[in-house]
Design brief:
Elements: H1 3-8, H2 19-38, H3 40-57, H4 59-70, H5 72-82, H6 85-95, H7 98-109, H8 111-121, H9 124-163, H10 178-209, H11 219-244, H12 248-252, E1 255-258, H13 266-281, H14 289-293, H15 300-305, E2 308-311
Antiparallel strand pairs: 1-2
Helix pairs in contact: 9-10, 10-11, 11-13
Protein backbone atom coordinates (compact mmCIF):
# COMPACT_ATOMS: atom_id res chain seq x y z
CA UNK A 1 0.00 0.00 0.00
CA UNK A 2 1.34 3.46 -0.93
CA UNK A 3 1.85 6.25 1.59
CA UNK A 4 -0.34 8.71 -0.37
CA UNK A 5 -3.26 6.28 -0.40
CA UNK A 6 -2.96 5.67 3.32
CA UNK A 7 -2.69 9.41 3.98
CA UNK A 8 -5.86 10.20 1.94
CA UNK A 9 -7.80 7.39 3.58
CA UNK A 10 -8.71 5.87 0.20
CA UNK A 11 -8.26 2.37 -1.11
CA UNK A 12 -4.69 1.23 -1.66
CA UNK A 13 -3.34 2.17 -5.06
CA UNK A 14 -2.40 -0.63 -7.34
CA UNK A 15 1.40 -0.90 -7.62
CA UNK A 16 2.82 -1.04 -11.12
CA UNK A 17 3.82 -4.56 -11.95
CA UNK A 18 6.71 -3.82 -14.33
CA UNK A 19 10.00 -2.29 -13.37
CA UNK A 20 9.63 0.87 -15.51
CA UNK A 21 6.29 1.70 -13.92
CA UNK A 22 7.71 1.29 -10.44
CA UNK A 23 10.62 3.55 -11.24
CA UNK A 24 8.36 6.33 -12.68
CA UNK A 25 5.92 6.11 -9.74
CA UNK A 26 8.67 6.26 -7.22
CA UNK A 27 10.28 9.19 -9.03
CA UNK A 28 7.01 11.10 -9.05
CA UNK A 29 6.49 10.64 -5.32
CA UNK A 30 10.03 11.72 -4.61
CA UNK A 31 9.57 14.81 -6.86
CA UNK A 32 6.36 15.79 -4.98
CA UNK A 33 8.13 15.48 -1.65
CA UNK A 34 11.05 17.59 -2.84
CA UNK A 35 8.72 20.25 -4.34
CA UNK A 36 6.70 20.43 -1.10
CA UNK A 37 9.82 20.68 0.99
CA UNK A 38 11.32 23.39 -1.21
CA UNK A 39 8.07 25.42 -1.50
CA UNK A 40 7.91 25.03 -5.25
CA UNK A 41 4.26 23.89 -5.18
CA UNK A 42 3.16 27.11 -3.42
CA UNK A 43 5.16 29.24 -5.83
CA UNK A 44 3.53 27.42 -8.73
CA UNK A 45 0.04 28.02 -7.29
CA UNK A 46 0.82 31.71 -6.81
CA UNK A 47 2.06 32.01 -10.38
CA UNK A 48 -1.04 30.31 -11.74
CA UNK A 49 -3.27 32.59 -9.65
CA UNK A 50 -1.53 35.73 -10.91
CA UNK A 51 -1.77 34.46 -14.47
CA UNK A 52 -5.54 33.97 -14.08
CA UNK A 53 -5.97 37.47 -12.57
CA UNK A 54 -3.98 39.05 -15.39
CA UNK A 55 -6.04 37.16 -17.94
CA UNK A 56 -9.31 38.35 -16.38
CA UNK A 57 -8.14 41.97 -16.17
CA UNK A 58 -6.78 42.05 -19.71
CA UNK A 59 -8.39 44.03 -22.57
CA UNK A 60 -8.92 40.84 -24.54
CA UNK A 61 -11.02 39.34 -21.75
CA UNK A 62 -13.03 42.58 -21.48
CA UNK A 63 -13.71 42.58 -25.21
CA UNK A 64 -14.71 38.92 -25.08
CA UNK A 65 -17.14 39.54 -22.21
CA UNK A 66 -18.59 42.56 -24.07
CA UNK A 67 -19.15 40.44 -27.16
CA UNK A 68 -20.91 37.82 -25.08
CA UNK A 69 -23.14 40.39 -23.33
CA UNK A 70 -24.04 42.15 -26.58
CA UNK A 71 -24.61 38.92 -28.45
CA UNK A 72 -27.85 36.97 -28.74
CA UNK A 73 -26.80 34.31 -26.25
CA UNK A 74 -27.51 36.38 -23.11
CA UNK A 75 -30.85 37.60 -24.48
CA UNK A 76 -31.91 34.06 -25.34
CA UNK A 77 -30.87 32.84 -21.88
CA UNK A 78 -32.89 35.63 -20.20
CA UNK A 79 -35.96 34.91 -22.33
CA UNK A 80 -35.75 31.21 -21.54
CA UNK A 81 -35.40 32.02 -17.85
CA UNK A 82 -38.43 34.33 -17.94
CA UNK A 83 -40.48 31.62 -19.63
CA UNK A 84 -39.47 29.12 -16.99
CA UNK A 85 -42.21 28.12 -14.55
CA UNK A 86 -39.68 27.83 -11.74
CA UNK A 87 -38.53 31.44 -12.23
CA UNK A 88 -42.14 32.63 -12.43
CA UNK A 89 -43.03 30.82 -9.22
CA UNK A 90 -39.95 32.25 -7.48
CA UNK A 91 -40.89 35.79 -8.55
CA UNK A 92 -44.50 35.34 -7.35
CA UNK A 93 -43.31 34.05 -3.99
CA UNK A 94 -40.93 37.00 -3.69
CA UNK A 95 -43.69 39.53 -4.50
CA UNK A 96 -46.08 37.93 -2.02
CA UNK A 97 -43.51 37.75 0.75
CA UNK A 98 -43.74 39.85 3.93
CA UNK A 99 -40.32 41.32 3.20
CA UNK A 100 -41.66 43.09 0.09
CA UNK A 101 -44.67 44.41 2.08
CA UNK A 102 -42.38 45.82 4.74
CA UNK A 103 -40.15 47.35 2.09
CA UNK A 104 -43.10 49.07 0.37
CA UNK A 105 -44.36 50.28 3.74
CA UNK A 106 -41.03 51.89 4.52
CA UNK A 107 -40.86 53.46 1.06
CA UNK A 108 -44.36 54.94 1.28
CA UNK A 109 -43.82 56.23 4.82
CA UNK A 110 -40.52 57.91 4.00
CA UNK A 111 -40.23 61.70 3.83
CA UNK A 112 -38.67 61.50 0.38
CA UNK A 113 -41.73 59.74 -1.01
CA UNK A 114 -44.07 62.35 0.50
CA UNK A 115 -42.00 65.16 -0.98
CA UNK A 116 -42.04 63.43 -4.37
CA UNK A 117 -45.83 63.05 -4.27
CA UNK A 118 -46.27 66.72 -3.32
CA UNK A 119 -43.94 67.80 -6.12
CA UNK A 120 -45.85 65.70 -8.67
CA UNK A 121 -49.22 67.02 -7.45
CA UNK A 122 -48.03 70.62 -7.71
CA UNK A 123 -46.65 70.19 -11.23
CA UNK A 124 -48.47 72.42 -13.78
CA UNK A 125 -48.74 69.53 -16.24
CA UNK A 126 -50.63 67.42 -13.70
CA UNK A 127 -52.96 70.29 -12.80
CA UNK A 128 -53.64 70.97 -16.47
CA UNK A 129 -54.43 67.29 -17.07
CA UNK A 130 -56.82 67.20 -14.09
CA UNK A 131 -58.53 70.39 -15.25
CA UNK A 132 -58.95 69.06 -18.78
CA UNK A 133 -60.42 65.83 -17.43
CA UNK A 134 -62.86 67.82 -15.28
CA UNK A 135 -63.92 69.95 -18.23
CA UNK A 136 -64.29 66.83 -20.36
CA UNK A 137 -66.48 65.19 -17.71
CA UNK A 138 -68.75 68.24 -17.49
CA UNK A 139 -68.98 68.32 -21.28
CA UNK A 140 -69.95 64.64 -21.41
CA UNK A 141 -72.67 65.18 -18.79
CA UNK A 142 -74.00 68.17 -20.70
CA UNK A 143 -74.07 66.17 -23.93
CA UNK A 144 -76.10 63.40 -22.29
CA UNK A 145 -78.53 65.91 -20.77
CA UNK A 146 -78.82 67.67 -24.12
CA UNK A 147 -79.86 64.42 -25.81
CA UNK A 148 -82.72 64.04 -23.34
CA UNK A 149 -83.87 67.64 -23.71
CA UNK A 150 -83.83 67.34 -27.52
CA UNK A 151 -86.27 64.46 -27.27
CA UNK A 152 -88.41 66.52 -24.88
CA UNK A 153 -88.28 69.41 -27.37
CA UNK A 154 -89.68 67.19 -30.13
CA UNK A 155 -92.36 65.67 -27.90
CA UNK A 156 -93.42 69.04 -26.47
CA UNK A 157 -93.60 70.60 -29.92
CA UNK A 158 -95.63 67.69 -31.28
CA UNK A 159 -98.12 67.86 -28.41
CA UNK A 160 -98.38 71.66 -28.49
CA UNK A 161 -98.97 71.83 -32.23
CA UNK A 162 -101.61 69.13 -31.96
CA UNK A 163 -103.41 70.99 -29.16
CA UNK A 164 -103.48 74.20 -31.18
CA UNK A 165 -104.50 72.37 -34.37
CA UNK A 166 -101.29 72.96 -36.28
CA UNK A 167 -99.60 70.68 -38.76
CA UNK A 168 -96.84 68.50 -37.27
CA UNK A 169 -93.25 69.10 -38.26
CA UNK A 170 -92.23 67.16 -41.35
CA UNK A 171 -88.51 68.00 -41.53
CA UNK A 172 -85.63 67.84 -39.09
CA UNK A 173 -84.43 71.11 -37.57
CA UNK A 174 -81.28 72.54 -36.07
CA UNK A 175 -83.20 75.12 -33.99
CA UNK A 176 -83.15 74.59 -30.23
CA UNK A 177 -86.52 73.76 -28.72
CA UNK A 178 -88.47 74.92 -25.68
CA UNK A 179 -87.24 72.51 -22.99
CA UNK A 180 -83.54 72.78 -23.88
CA UNK A 181 -83.70 76.56 -23.80
CA UNK A 182 -85.69 76.70 -20.55
CA UNK A 183 -83.23 74.36 -18.86
CA UNK A 184 -80.39 76.63 -19.98
CA UNK A 185 -82.20 79.63 -18.47
CA UNK A 186 -82.71 77.65 -15.25
CA UNK A 187 -78.99 76.86 -14.99
CA UNK A 188 -78.15 80.51 -15.56
CA UNK A 189 -80.65 81.54 -12.87
CA UNK A 190 -78.97 79.19 -10.40
CA UNK A 191 -75.58 80.73 -11.20
CA UNK A 192 -76.92 84.25 -10.72
CA UNK A 193 -78.61 83.30 -7.43
CA UNK A 194 -75.41 81.73 -6.11
CA UNK A 195 -73.56 84.95 -6.89
CA UNK A 196 -76.22 87.11 -5.21
CA UNK A 197 -76.41 84.87 -2.14
CA UNK A 198 -72.64 85.00 -1.81
CA UNK A 199 -72.72 88.78 -2.11
CA UNK A 200 -75.51 89.05 0.47
CA UNK A 201 -73.59 86.82 2.87
CA UNK A 202 -70.51 89.01 2.44
CA UNK A 203 -72.55 92.16 3.10
CA UNK A 204 -74.10 90.56 6.20
CA UNK A 205 -70.64 89.62 7.47
CA UNK A 206 -69.36 93.17 6.97
CA UNK A 207 -72.45 94.56 8.74
CA UNK A 208 -71.91 92.25 11.69
CA UNK A 209 -68.27 93.39 11.95
CA UNK A 210 -69.43 97.00 12.27
CA UNK A 211 -72.15 96.04 14.75
CA UNK A 212 -75.10 96.59 12.40
CA UNK A 213 -78.22 94.41 12.66
CA UNK A 214 -79.15 93.14 9.18
CA UNK A 215 -81.97 90.88 10.40
CA UNK A 216 -84.72 93.50 10.43
CA UNK A 217 -84.87 94.57 6.80
CA UNK A 218 -87.53 97.01 5.68
CA UNK A 219 -89.73 96.61 2.63
CA UNK A 220 -87.60 99.18 0.88
CA UNK A 221 -84.50 97.08 1.40
CA UNK A 222 -86.30 94.03 -0.02
CA UNK A 223 -87.31 96.06 -3.07
CA UNK A 224 -83.70 97.14 -3.51
CA UNK A 225 -82.67 93.48 -3.29
CA UNK A 226 -85.20 92.51 -5.96
CA UNK A 227 -83.95 95.29 -8.24
CA UNK A 228 -80.39 94.14 -7.61
CA UNK A 229 -81.37 90.60 -8.64
CA UNK A 230 -83.03 91.94 -11.80
CA UNK A 231 -80.05 94.11 -12.63
CA UNK A 232 -77.53 91.34 -11.95
CA UNK A 233 -79.46 88.86 -14.09
CA UNK A 234 -79.81 91.37 -16.93
CA UNK A 235 -76.12 92.23 -16.85
CA UNK A 236 -75.26 88.52 -16.83
CA UNK A 237 -77.37 87.79 -19.91
CA UNK A 238 -76.31 90.93 -21.77
CA UNK A 239 -72.57 90.30 -21.34
CA UNK A 240 -72.64 86.66 -22.39
CA UNK A 241 -75.07 87.19 -25.27
CA UNK A 242 -73.13 90.11 -26.75
CA UNK A 243 -69.67 88.55 -26.38
CA UNK A 244 -70.12 84.90 -27.32
CA UNK A 245 -73.81 84.24 -27.96
CA UNK A 246 -73.75 81.69 -25.15
CA UNK A 247 -74.37 81.81 -21.44
CA UNK A 248 -72.77 79.09 -19.26
CA UNK A 249 -76.11 77.28 -19.17
CA UNK A 250 -76.38 77.34 -22.96
CA UNK A 251 -72.80 76.17 -23.32
CA UNK A 252 -73.48 73.26 -20.98
CA UNK A 253 -76.35 72.16 -23.25
CA UNK A 254 -74.49 72.86 -26.54
CA UNK A 255 -76.80 75.56 -27.90
CA UNK A 256 -75.91 79.04 -29.16
CA UNK A 257 -77.56 82.31 -30.21
CA UNK A 258 -76.78 83.45 -33.75
CA UNK A 259 -77.79 86.29 -36.01
CA UNK A 260 -77.29 85.97 -39.75
CA UNK A 261 -74.85 83.10 -39.22
CA UNK A 262 -72.72 84.97 -36.65
CA UNK A 263 -72.48 84.02 -32.98
CA UNK A 264 -71.12 87.44 -32.06
CA UNK A 265 -74.42 89.26 -32.16
CA UNK A 266 -73.01 92.46 -30.63
CA UNK A 267 -74.34 94.69 -27.86
CA UNK A 268 -77.17 96.31 -29.88
CA UNK A 269 -78.92 93.03 -30.75
CA UNK A 270 -78.13 91.66 -27.29
CA UNK A 271 -79.84 94.66 -25.69
CA UNK A 272 -82.90 94.35 -27.95
CA UNK A 273 -83.11 90.65 -27.19
CA UNK A 274 -82.80 91.34 -23.45
CA UNK A 275 -85.66 93.85 -23.57
CA UNK A 276 -87.75 91.33 -25.52
CA UNK A 277 -86.85 88.63 -22.99
CA UNK A 278 -88.29 90.58 -20.04
CA UNK A 279 -91.33 91.70 -22.06
CA UNK A 280 -91.97 88.06 -23.01
CA UNK A 281 -91.72 87.03 -19.34
CA UNK A 282 -94.13 89.68 -17.98
CA UNK A 283 -97.43 88.14 -19.27
CA UNK A 284 -96.80 84.85 -17.42
CA UNK A 285 -94.18 83.81 -19.98
CA UNK A 286 -96.61 83.79 -22.93
CA UNK A 287 -94.02 85.56 -25.06
CA UNK A 288 -92.00 82.33 -25.11
CA UNK A 289 -94.83 80.21 -26.51
CA UNK A 290 -93.53 80.72 -30.05
CA UNK A 291 -90.50 78.57 -29.18
CA UNK A 292 -92.91 75.69 -28.62
CA UNK A 293 -95.39 76.28 -31.44
CA UNK A 294 -93.71 78.14 -34.32
CA UNK A 295 -91.97 76.10 -37.02
CA UNK A 296 -88.77 78.18 -36.64
CA UNK A 297 -88.89 77.89 -32.82
CA UNK A 298 -88.56 81.62 -32.17
CA UNK A 299 -90.06 83.56 -29.28
CA UNK A 300 -90.89 87.23 -28.98
CA UNK A 301 -87.35 88.10 -27.80
CA UNK A 302 -85.83 86.20 -30.75
CA UNK A 303 -87.93 88.11 -33.28
CA UNK A 304 -87.26 91.46 -31.59
CA UNK A 305 -83.52 90.87 -31.52
CA UNK A 306 -83.35 89.23 -34.96
CA UNK A 307 -81.74 86.09 -33.51
CA UNK A 308 -82.26 82.34 -33.37
CA UNK A 309 -80.94 79.59 -31.11
CA UNK A 310 -79.30 76.51 -32.67
CA UNK A 311 -78.23 73.04 -31.60
CA UNK A 312 -74.44 72.54 -31.85
CA UNK A 313 -72.32 69.48 -32.48
CA UNK A 314 -69.70 69.58 -29.67
CA UNK A 315 -67.56 66.83 -31.22
CA UNK A 316 -66.55 68.93 -34.21
CA UNK A 317 -63.78 71.54 -33.83
CA UNK A 318 -65.81 74.50 -35.09
CA UNK A 319 -69.04 73.21 -33.42
CA UNK A 320 -71.36 73.41 -36.46
CA UNK A 321 -75.14 73.20 -36.29
CA UNK A 322 -76.58 69.78 -35.56
CA UNK A 323 -79.82 68.57 -37.09
CA UNK A 324 -82.11 66.72 -34.74
CA UNK A 325 -83.84 64.01 -36.81
CA UNK A 326 -87.48 63.34 -36.22
CA UNK A 327 -86.94 59.58 -35.99
CA UNK A 328 -84.88 60.14 -32.81
CA UNK A 329 -88.02 61.20 -30.99
CA UNK A 330 -90.45 58.49 -29.88
Amino acid sequence: MSESSERNGGPPAEEPRNLAGRLVSGGTRQAQRVAGAAGLDRALETAIEEAIVRAVESDATERAVARILNGPMIEQAVQQALRSEAVEQALLETVDSEMVDRLWGRILDSDETQKLIERIAEAPEVRAAIASQGVGLIGDIGEQVSRVTKVLDAIGERVGRRIFFRQPRSLATDRAGFFTRMLGVGIDAIIVNIGLISGAALISLIASVFGLDASGLSNGALAVGALAWLGMGSLYLFVFWSLSGQTPGMRFLDIRIESEGESNIGPRKALRRLVGFWLAAIPFGLGFIGVLLKIDRTGFHDRLGGTAVYYLNPREPDMPHEQFPLESAP
